[in-house]
Amino acid sequence: MTTPEEGPAASRTESRAERPVESPAESPAAPDGAPDTPDGGAGRPAGAPLSGEQRAAAVAALAKAIGAINANDIVAPPRPPREVDLATPEEPSEESAESAESAESAESTEQSEPEPESVPVGKSAPVERPVRRPAVPAGRLDVPLDDAQRRAALAAVGEVLAAGGAPAELAGAALAEFGEGAAEQVRADPWAVLALPGVRPEHADGFAKTLLGPAAQPGDPRRAQALVAWLLEQAALRGHSAQELGEVAGALRAQRVPDPEAALQAVLEDGRVMPFQEELPMPPGSHDEDEEPPVRTMLALERLALAEESLGEGLVRLLSTFEDGPGPDAWEEAAAAAPRSAQELVRAVSASGLVLHTGGEAARAEPAALLHAAAGLGLRVWAAVWAGQGRDALAALLPAGSPAAGRIGTVPELLSGADVPRALDGTLELDVLVVLDAPLLDVETAATLLEALADGARLVLSGDPGGLWSAGPGRFFADLLAARACPAVASRTPDFGPIGELVSGVGVGELPPVDAPDKEVVILTAQDGGEAVHRAVQLLTDSIPRALSVPPEQTVLLTPGHGGPAGTRALNAAAKARLNPGPGRFGGFDPGDRVVHSPALGVNLPGRVLDGDASGLHVELADGGRITLSPAQAGKLRHGWAVTAHQAVGRRWPAVVVVLPPEAAGQLTRQWVYSAFGRAERHLSVVHAAGPALAQAVAERPAPERTTRLRSVLTAQ
């Protein structure tokens, strides 16, 4: 299906340039968190609201304080040319920071030099701006603990947690987060438990009060530091890679921090959060050319700030170092031989090291044609998709006997190095990398991907801009499109049929009536969540198999959330009762149950339970292969007859039943509806109990906002 590209209105909402705040001076905050600010600092009662004048003065004072912080350590000294940038035993090792989708991390560097002069995107000279990697957290060992050390460390931190009234189950998470010194760190800083999963500010406050007694005060600098990191982590879970300073200050005030401005100054000096100043766009003619544009101050977690800086450096490097390879004549011959719909894409790739490609499901044939053409030119080419099902679907689009056969994998497979040769410096030995489902890449995964590409390689990012964004922070693909930093090819190949017509209409904010003579699209209404569950399970188990010969295992139920009368839990319970009743003898599961395994954020693997024994739960994955889940892993497993649209991204099913209960009205957006409807290949049923909320969401709510820095980073290149 064709979708409109982002227009000028979208680009006006982003900043034109961004720069780290720089100054050689430092201005430390007072230990009690009270700054020398016009609003009176500690003299103001805790929780008292600021007047407009006080707020403006406080923000101005904080901005001045931020300007005194030396931010030059955001970039490291220029690295040597890549051909001599080889791994040696003395260099820090690279490892996954949080999960298979996290950006790599390595030792930090203490040198502080001026940022190298950058060149405009697309110019011939590469820009070397390697970023400083986060240091290993204090107390965490860079060598694994043996069993005795681990037991001792677990016992020590468990004792501290118990003394503060925290559940013992957090001991393992604390050891993983803080290392062997977890007990000492948590005892010295009780609010550090906010970094552990599931812990909220009220829990951390209670824990600190139990440990510290009257010394646990709302204005404790340790509390503010933990709160700022927690607030930014919570924002990252909502997709933001940065937050405006005023929003963070307001959130601190809501948490009863008596002087948010002073607290933020202390946090920034600590270095775990990075400040950036970003120029705000102004309408043409509204100011003098010599007038300084207004700026806003952004705060970002170190890992996300470094990921976006790394992305900017990597994208510029690809644009400035790509090589012609076979030559213009050979590329033109390959383009002429490709299907007409793919010729523009092949020509664009011949002339640029970075190309964006947009389109719907039918447009995936164009990257397949590019893959075939590049392999035919003798280039080392590889394609990566989000899920195993997409790998098989893309392979089916290649011509018979294509030299590109067998050169398709998933993004996790690519990053793990499976079947892809690597050079001595760890980079992928590829001339062309084609990544489909690119909107699903968060900034950390995207940064890892770009760092794996060698100088001279070409990168093609393809995806549907109307679908859901990544589960992790950022909007990598959308920001690249909006920045217009490289060639972008919009497919003219529409998705045919009633489902394609409906999804295309949703993409432009409409719910068009569709003619579906073969019942490709069916709309059913329900009065409430209970009726919606009944109708959805009836479609899954009876109506769709009988009318369309699509068995239940090839149909999926999609709903916006897990809870509620018609969430995934309720739908899965009803589906299991009809299709595979049983006592749940293996931790709530029975052989034959459909399940979804989520080993990392944004990674969802559908499968079927085989059996269980003392070693764990045995699951056969839909993408092939079998895994055994430990009892702890099985405890996080979900039944999989019904999933959310976010869990379904990167996959399609012959039949899809979308359930829209009344309580989900506030969660619906055009982006969600577009993605959910687009998961269907042959048949789409919509059990509609949301009333006018569906049409309102499609027409008025395109997508949840995400605050990111990547566009500004690219603009500043």
Describe it for me?
- The protein is 37% helix and 15% strand.
- The protein is an alpha/beta fold and 717 residues long.
- The strands form 5 sheets. The chain has a 6-stranded parallel β-sheet, sandwiched between helices. Strands 13-22-21-14-20 form a 5-stranded parallel β-sheet.
- α3 (147-163) crosses α4 and α11 crosses α13 (365-376).
Summarize it.
With 717 residues, the protein is of the alpha/beta class.
SSE topology sketch:
Blueprint: H1 8-12, E1 17-20, H2 52-67, E2 95-96, E3 104-105, H3 147-163, H4 170-178, H5 182-188, H6 201-212, H7 221-237, E4 243-244, H8 245-254, H9 260-270, E5 273-279, E6 295-301, H10 302-321, H11 328-337, H12 340-351, E7 354-358, H13 365-376, E8 381-385, H14 388-396, E9 408-410, H15 411-416, E10 432-435, H16 443-451, E11 458-463, H17 476-483, E12 488-490, H18 497-507, E13 521-525, H19 529-548, E14 555-558, H20 568-579, E15 594-600, E16 603-613, E17 616-621, E18 626-629, H21 631-634, E19 638-639, E20 642-643, H22 645-648, E21 653-660, H23 670-677, E22 680-688, H24 693-700, H25 710-716
Parallel strand pairs: 7-11, 7-12, 8-9, 8-10, 10-11, 13-22, 14-20, 14-21, 21-22
Antiparallel strand pairs: 1-5, 2-3, 4-6, 5-6, 15-16, 15-19, 16-17, 17-18
